[in-house]
What we know:
The chain has two helices and 18 strands. It has helices at 215-220, 262-274; strands spanning 9-14, 20-27, 33-39, 42-50, 56-62, 65-73, 79-85, 88-96, 102-108, 111-119, 126-132, 135-143, 147-154, 157-166, 170-177, 198-206, 249-251, 254-256. The longest helix has 13 residues, at 262-274.
Amino acid sequence: MSDAGSEDEYEGDRDGEGQRHGFGKARLPNGDTYEGEYEHGLRSGHGTYRFKNGALYTGNYLQNKKHGKGVFFYPDGSKYAGDWVHDQRQGYGEYLYANGDTYTGEWANNKRHGQGTYVYKETGSKYVGCWVNGIQNGPAELIHLNHRFKGRFLNGKPLGRGKFIFDIGCEQHGEYIQPVQEKEEEDEDEPPLPLEPIWKVSEITKLTPWSPHDEELLVSREAAGAVAEEEEVPSAIGLFWKHLETPCFDYGDHCFRGLISSDVRGFLCFILFFL
Length: 275
């Protein structure tokens, strides 16, 4: 949302050449208003810009652009408070979304980029980790009420080695594998539906220290000569992992999946690890 424009009504200080300089108030032809500091005809310093549609920005300017620290209130009720560079959200800041979700962390070119934490109000789940151009990408931890997942994300989805950690003291190690898309002759002219990564369990243990950066150590524990398959980029992107399920517990021919209680999960950990 740009606040660039040429004011046709102005009241305030001017420099020796008659340009707006110092503190002033202005009204733009489109109905927007600005009150704050000017330097040689341009908005520079601290000011408050009110948009006709209800949006509002209060913070620092540099040569008519939002630059430095500032807070932007959007018409839908969302709000960003943090760093700006040449009218772009860039640096560190917090965004409160209209649905109550929040993101706190690094930004670049108006997108979540770098290290950041996204909290989903609906479920209380929290993503803590890396972002690239607004998408979950890199080492991260997805924290739920009674369990969490540590691993890597690619294009908004978990992919590769990781582990689920449960609050009753056990872990499920494994990896997310991207299924191979199979083509059907009758559907050659239609784009295939994206397949979701599949969780493959390798072992269940007691709590152990681990991070996504320890992949080399985990690989060394596998049989000599084993070759890992090349990771494929998932075709679907987004933040759908806020409802990530508890992984499947394989026990004989049975599979326990979903949001199960702590007592049941504790029993499953017991029969899977201690028996």
